Amino acid sequence: MSSVQIHTLSNGLRIVTEHMPGLQSAALGLWVNAGGRHERAEENGIAHFLEHMAFKGTARRNAQQIAEEIEDVGGYINAYTSREATAYYARVLKDDVPLALDLITDIVLNPVFDPREIEVERGVILQEIGQAADTPDDIIFDWLQEVAYPGQPLGRTILGPADRVRSFGRGDFDGFIRTHYGPGQLILSAAGAVDHDEIVRLAENALGHLAPQPVIDAEPGRFAGGERREVKKLEQAHFTLALEAPGYRHDDVYAAQIFATALGGGMSSRLFQEIRERRGLCYSIFAQVGSYDDTGMLTIYAGTGAEDLAELAELTVDEIRRSVGGLTQAELDRARAQMKAGMLMGLESPSARAERLARLVGIWNRVPPLEETVAKIDAVTLNRLHAFAESLAGAGRAAMALYGPVGHAPSLDSLAERLAA
User: Are 247 and 291 contacting, i.e. CB atoms less than 8 angstroms apart?
Assistant: First the structure.
């Protein structure tokens, strides 16, 4: 019998918990269904800036007190911003769950946005933007996202451009919270040594007073594709290629994930074996699927020398094309086993469980049992995998970003023609 329980407060805020027997610790947090893709163009970067400001002081605690209270009990507290959500979460021993929940709700609901702290954190974020720009295998994925979804919220960076970050003030933060931090957009998730009824009681006291407000839907994502190459004198040429993949509500999402694993998900994958092991063209190459509510991307990345880039790019496309009708039952079985093992091993930690609960409630408003998810993975047949690979190769749209000594790399059009051949 599942130990997952869900409760919705009268104002629409959802609470999901999972008791994990034998644990002495718990993970819990607030997941806000508002991330980078919910920003207007002039707000780009504000969701991330707001996440930083949550730790800079509330009406009840200053920044040092926030840090000391959680660390006095041996716990930790952190946050992240993605394109579809912002999360504020903590890990503590079971007796300190009330403290953790009080801290998290305090930093989310009661930030003071002290002007001095805004300036301090503005400097920190500008340094973060600069660091990302100086890290080729970070910045190239932002460029790939931008050309895949041009002119759309889904194509913008999470950090935002430096000029926008320099302009944000308290009024911008307050406005974003009013629009996107209503109870209908909040999910309180907890896993580990937790008691559902206690969590509900604590949440009712801390969050039950929030007034309902309309939920603002994000602009739909439209994968368009395109190319960006930045020529720079670097030791390596960085290559990324993306094809549109299903969103996480689509029936083919499991086929897409299995395909990506077989193509470039490990040492036994086609790309690793052909491009690294047999030909020695790179140290690192991988493929992965990232899914959003309404779209997704299959992304391939490799770093190589300038003299090997053209061959690597063409071989990558050739492996995708050869996978159409060429993937074997053994490859399917191996990729399926990797996917299931990775999922199940990852869920041995309460932090991973809490994040999974929040994500699934956000998607489905329920938590499908693990057995249901495993059954869907097992239901992917070889014919279905071949059909997905064929649709991928025949889509006609792709995105590519290149950085480094890439002036003589093949064009995206030439690679697309090679893929469709």
Answer: yes
